[in-house]
C-alpha cells in the first residue's frame, strides 16, 4: 500500500511496512532498528515501530 500522507501511515508499523515506506531492503530496515536509529517496541519476537519514531528519524 502506498501512503500519500503522513497521517495515512498506521500508528504501529511492522518491519515490512517500514521497508515499503523508506524504500529500503529487509537487512537495512533491521539494521536501522538494531542500531536504534529508529526506535521500536519489542513484544517478544515481534517488532513494531511507532509512526512518530519514523518522523523523528527524518528530523
3D architecture notes:
This protein is α+β, with helices and mostly antiparallel strands and 59 residues long. It has helices at 15-22, 26-34, 51-58, and strands at residues 12-13, 41-43, 46-50. Strand 2 (41-43) and strand 3 (46-50) form a beta hairpin. Helix 1 (15-22) packs across helix 2.
Strands, count: 3
Spatial strand arrangement across the major sheet: 1-3-2
Task: Tell me the fraction of residues in β-strands, as a range.
Answer: 15-25%
Largest sheet: 3 strands, antiparallel
How would you describe the shape?
globular
Q: Roughly what percent helix? A: 40-55%
- Determine the mean pLDDT: 93
Radius of gyration using CA atoms only? 11 Å
Distance between the termini: 24 Å
Order of helices and strands: EHHEEH
Structural class call reads alpha+beta
Tell me the number of helical segments per DSSP (H or I, 4 or more residues long). Answer: 3
Poorly predicted runs are none
Task: Give the SSE map.
Layout: E1 12-13, H1 15-22, H2 26-34, E2 41-43, E3 46-50, H3 51-58
Antiparallel strand pairs: 1-3, 2-3
Helix pairs in contact: 1-2
Question: Which terms would index this structure?
Answer:
59 residues; alpha+beta; three-stranded antiparallel beta sheet
Amino acid at each position: 500500500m502506498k501512503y500519500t500522507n503522513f497521517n495515512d501511515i498506521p500508528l504501529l508499523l511492522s518491519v515490512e511496512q517500514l521497508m515499503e515506506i523508506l524504500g529500503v531492503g529487509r537487512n537495512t530496515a533491521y539494521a536501522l532498528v538494531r542500531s536504534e536509529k529508529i526506535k521500536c517496541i519489542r513484544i517478544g519476537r515481534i517488532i513494531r515501530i511507532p509512526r512518530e519514531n519514523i518522523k523523528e528519524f527524518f528530523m
